[in-house]
């Protein structure tokens, strides 16, 4: 499934409130730069005319609201944090589209494809700055979440998560041209890039002024989901779900030889012949459709597919364990567990 | 002159202290991502082996120390802010090198030229996050500068400056393919991109817990210098100083048809024939050496060069006026005024 829609535990009014907070924050600024951001976020077309895209993934913002709600926070105080994480996630996507040369994002031309790489890099940088500026808005709200110590903790969490994503991205890119990539390497990348969802879950806790123990549980919960989601994106790129085709982002990762967990498993555990064949394929500059077909059939033979599927299941179990360990109500626990499963499967 | 060296009012021990704070902050992290940053900052070669580049421009970090000193701050408390602004400036350079396809930066291969655009975008994003993380270090210091309200103000100043630079960058890029660019348009870009030096001067004031009035004066001082520096970079690209050649960054701006103040002046005030000729040149996809020679001779004829030179002088006068209005000691005033002139002329 392509997007999460509204997460269990949230109402459509929560989702509307979030969407209008996000929109209001971006719309409050007037230059064409912000129209480009509004295009990426699915509210206007390339000319800046209203055009609502209905299937946008807002799981990053929504999970902030969901963890805050479970921890006793309120929507109003949580909104600037939810907006911040959604923007953080989107800044990363905008830059990823340039880095992987993705022509499309969410079935529309990506920013770099429409406006060129220079504008796309710049728009991403702008969204990155906006993510943090959103947190400063928090000072205007009332209640516990306006506590300066919490605001500062939220900012630091956001920046540390960003840096961790950059560390992961560095490794992910450097593995493109290497055949010798092992399971631990790929897991490290997926975990580091999963820091955004870890940050999202934690920020919900911060908005609710949760205890340090709870914040740690929420971070581990979110990071496990984020890690699983990254691994699952690669799995669905290799083996699309029934009746779906690879999207541009998935195709981009395969063609550019980004290493999946399944590929690393085959490289680490395959017979010498399998390893040699994988090496030959990864020697090519860009992978074509036949190469990708051959890779997927090798990975099924070596049981690398099931290894990767199991790893995703274990990470989901880890996320569930973290939620079970909290003193959230059973209803909230169930909602967060179902949300985790949805987010992992979305891409 | 290519770089500022040590600004008047600072000692070589101040500069050493700054350099080791910057180096320690980047070196405290261990992944290859940080080696790439160390390469860009001039401490190691492309393989991560020590290689000190002596002519690095550190004016952004140094001006933070200089304004703090004048306002009564101390080096120790100011250091995290100085490191933050230096990194902010460098994140922008790393992305600019990708955006303008600059093969060199400071006479060495740029990050994108050595490691490709994907790694360069990512390294820039990492430096951007590091800039803010440096400010969190401030909490560990003692004295007034560790005040949470001041730290929060510093972070917000940094983020707002970044967003302003992105707004300027958007306009700058969008003017590349337009001939109809007027004087006000170019000044807006230069002013918005000058926000980094405005932020630098203000952060020095924040480190010294300066009054709001003084912070405003320092912001205007720094922004005027930053604006003048941007305009001067274009002037020196069109008319290099005696015995110097255009560097890659200057050549990049000319070839990619970034609009200088002088060009905007000629477009706005030239005869119909001049305007038509300028339009024909800017219709080309990329400008070659002959085109650039023709542009420079038109701009001298239309007195557009002297218009731009005068604008730079007026901005320097504006910066001086802001410093004169403060109650800094005469010695500090003179040092800051001389620093301003050096920074404008450096590139």
List the helices and strands and how they pair.
2 copies of one chain form a homodimer.
Chain A: H1 12-27, H2 32-40, H3 59-70, H4 75-99, E1 104-105, E2 108-109, H5 111-115, H6 117-137, H7 148-176, H8 183-193, H9 195-207, H10 212-238, H11 248-255, H12 261-269, H13 272-283, H14 289-301, H15 304-324, H16 330-345
Antiparallel strand pairs in A: 1-2
Would you kindly provide a written description of the structure presented here, covering whatever features stand out?
Two copies of one chain form a homodimer. Chain A contains 16 helices and two strands. With 347 residues, chain A is mainly alpha-helical. The first copy, chain A, has a single domain, classed as Orthogonal Bundle (Farnesyl Diphosphate Synthase). In chain A, strands 1-2 form a two-stranded antiparallel ribbon. In chain A, a hairpin with a 2-residue loop joins strand 1 and strand 2. The longest helix of chain A is centred in the middle third of the chain and has 29 residues, at 148-176. The mean pLDDT of chain A is 92. Chain A binds chain B through residues 31-33, 36, 95, 98-100, 116-119, 121-126, 128-130, 132-133, 136, 148-149, 151-152, 155-156, 159-160, 162-163, 166-167, 169-171, 173-174, and chain B through 31-33, 36, 95, 98-100, 116-119, 121-126, 128-130, 132-133, 136, 148-149, 151-152, 155-156, 159-160, 162-163, 166-167, 169-171, 173-174.
């Amino acid at each position: 499934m392509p997007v999460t829609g509204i997460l269990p535990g949230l109402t459509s009014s929560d989702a509307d409130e979030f969407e209008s907070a996000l929109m209001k924050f971006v719309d409050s600024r007037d230059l064409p730069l912000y129209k480009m951001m509004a295009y990426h976020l699915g509210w206007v077309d390339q000319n800046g005319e209203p055009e609502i895209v209905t299937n946008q993934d807002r799981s990053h913002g929504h999970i902030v609201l969901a963890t805050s709600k479970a921890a006793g926070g309120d929507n109003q105080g949580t909104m600037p944090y939810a907006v911040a994480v959604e923007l953080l996630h989107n800044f990363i996507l905008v830059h990823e589209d340039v880095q992987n040369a993705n022509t499309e994002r969410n079935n529309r031309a990506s920013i770099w494809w429409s406006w060129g790489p220079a504008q796309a890099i710049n728009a991403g940088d702008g969204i990155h700055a906006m993510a943090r500026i959103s947190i400063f808005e928090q000072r205007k709200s009332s209640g516990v979440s306006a506590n300066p110590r919490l605001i500062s903790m939220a900012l630091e969490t956001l920046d540390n998560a960003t840096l961790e994503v950059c560390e992961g991205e560095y490794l992910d890119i450097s593995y493109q041209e290497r055949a010798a990539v092992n399971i631990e390497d790929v897991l490290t990348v997926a975990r580091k890039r999963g820091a955004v969802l870890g940050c999202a879950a934690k920020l919900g806790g911060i908005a609710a002024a949760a205890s340090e123990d709870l914040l740690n549980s929420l971070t581990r919960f979110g990071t496990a989901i984020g890690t699983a989601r990254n691994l699952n994106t690669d799995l669905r790129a290799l083996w699309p779900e029934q009746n779906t085709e690879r999207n541009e982002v998935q195709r981009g990762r395969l063609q550019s030889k980004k290493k999946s967990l399944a590929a690393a498993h085959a490289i680490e555990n395959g017979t010498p012949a399998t390893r040699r064949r994988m090496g030959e394929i990864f020697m090519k500059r860009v992978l074509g459709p036949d190469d990708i077909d051959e890779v997927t059939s090798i990975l099924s033979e070596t049981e690398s597919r099931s290894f990767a599927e199991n790893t995703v299941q274990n990470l989901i179990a880890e996320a569930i364990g973290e939620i079970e360990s909290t003193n959230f109500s059973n209803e909230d626990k169930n909602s967060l567990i179902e949300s985790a499963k949805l987010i992992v499967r979305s891409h």
